[in-house]
Write a structure and sequence with these properties.
This protein is of the alpha+beta class. The chain folds into two domains: 200 residues, no CATH class; 202 residues, no CATH class. It has twelve helices and twelve strands. Helix 1 crosses helix 10, helix 2 packs antiparallel against helix 8 and helix 10 packs antiparallel against helix 11. 39% of the residues are buried.
Length: 422
């Protein structure tokens, strides 16, 4: 047993020696090109998939930071408003794990513009959206809408007769975007101009546009904001809410959600975390983007496999006489094949290490600072758990196989034929 182990260790040492000499005596340019190709293959494996999954991650972040938060509380199906709101808000306010929260009152509303101009056959622009009454201070501590103001300003405490609208309902604020304006929109309403609100109870009112924002489709973009005091008075629902968004410390978000969900006072309320609020869309997107990334990655791996196969095959063919002499001197076929497999492993590890350094210290930080402004979300690179490890393993395995096959094909020929170069 010990003798067999020592023999295997000796064979491994001989194979490593031969592999090292092959690399050192081989063309430096071929080595650099091979490592460069494997580095690009690894980056392509990582980058395309990371970018596609980053779209989903960007959607989740946009929804969390501009609308839902970490815990989203709404009434049950049998109720129109949240039950026990004051007791619930007191618990939320006193929880040190909760960073901020925003209670909201919402109502469907018809908003109109262009009604001031009276002309024959003049069409009034009208959209139906969700009007949200908020405490401006709490809302903008909980969400990041402040960072997405395109024109004007945010609502302020004490604002009355003011409204903030999404750029999707207006023309001219995000030109060139597929989401610059919905088909039914209010036209080119400017800051300071007034729009008309038609409530379901027949009430009509005019409000001044003070801010235009764009949080992209999966944020708060299908909404308009007014002060809570204004909307609660119009609806006759003082101290009533039908949404509470809670933003928690990321380290404690899950336990905050579970604790709030299990409160007896929430028996008649519905609570969800960010994934639950978005529903199956997150899982469907992740699966779809993951499949696309795998398909693109498979093509890259095939290119790398063919490259390694050709390089090792040419190397072995050019060194047949040397290999024949080595076999004649007692070096086994297995050792010679292992040497070329180890040479392939060197190429793979070197390419992966260079790729990891670029990914860790350049690409990932760059896209964190400068996310790609896709129409549906701002996108950075995103890598789920084990994503990198799986792709490293796949690339190494494919490279080893690509080195093993040509080496075995050539080295198995007879020793005499190899020495004579036949």
């Amino acid at each position: 047993m010990i003798h067999r182990f020592q023999e295997k260790l000796k064979n491994l040492s001989v194979a490593a020696f031969i592999a090292k000499r092959n690399i050192m005596r081989g063309s430096k340019m071929v080595t650099l090109v091979t490592v460069f190709i494997l580095m690009l293959t690894f980056l392509n494996l990582m980058f395309v998939g990371g970018l596609l999954l980053g779209i989903m991650d960007g959607i989740i972040k946009a929804s969390r930071l501009s609308f839902i938060g970490d815990v989203f509380i709404v009434p049950s199906k049998d109720n129109t408003v949240i039950k026990n709101p004051q007791e619930l808000l007191t618990i939320i306010k006193n929880d040190p794990r909760i960073i901020s929260y925003s209670p909201r009152l919402t109502s469907p509303i018809a908003v109109e513009s262009g009604y001031q101009i009276v002309r024959p056959n003049r069409k009034v622009n009208r959209v139906t959206l969700s009007l949200v009454g908020v405490d401006p201070t709490r809302e903008f501590e909980t969400t990041n809408i402040e960072k997405h103001i395109l024109a004007g300003r945010m609502l302020r405490p004490g604002d009355q007769g003011k409204i903030m609208l999404s750029a999707q309902f207006l023309k001219g604020y995000i030109p060139g975007s597929a989401f610059s304006a919905l088909e039914d929109n209010l036209g080119a309403v400017k800051i300071g101009q007034k729009v008309r609100l038609r409530f379901a109870n027949g009430t009509v009112d005019e409000l001044e546009l003070v801010g235009v924002f764009n949080t992209k489709p999966f944020g708060a973009n299908m909404r308009a904001f007014v002060p809570y005091s204004y909307l609660s008075q119009k609806l006759g629902k003082q101290n009533q809410y039908n949404e509470i968004s809670v933003l928690a410390d990321p380290l404690h978000a899950r336990e905050v959600y579970i604790q709030l969900k299990n409160l007896p006072i929430n028996r008649n309320n519905l609570l969800s975390d960010i994934e639950g609020s978005l529903g199956t869309i997150t899982g469907d997107f992740q699966k779809s983007f993951g499949m696309i990334g795998n398909i693109v990655g498979a093509v890259s791996v095939m290119v790398a496999a063919v490259t390694i196969f050709i390089i090792i095959f040419v190397n072995v063919i050019n060194r047949r006489r040397y290999l024949g002499i080595a076999k004649a001197l007692g070096v086994t076929q297995e050792v010679l094949i292992l040497a070329y497999v180890m040479q392939s492993l060197f190429y793979a590890v070197a390419g992966i290490l260079v790729g990891l350094l670029l990914l860790q210290f350049f690409l990932t930080p760059f896209f964190m600072r400068h996310p790609l402004p896709f129409p549906i979300a701002d996108v950075s690179l995103y890598f789920p758990k084990f994503y990198i490890s799986v792709r490293i393993a796949v690339l190494i395995i494919v490279t080893l196989i690509s080195g093993f096959i040509p080496a075995r094909m050539v080295i198995r020929q007879s020793t005499i034929d190899a020495i004579l170069g036949r």
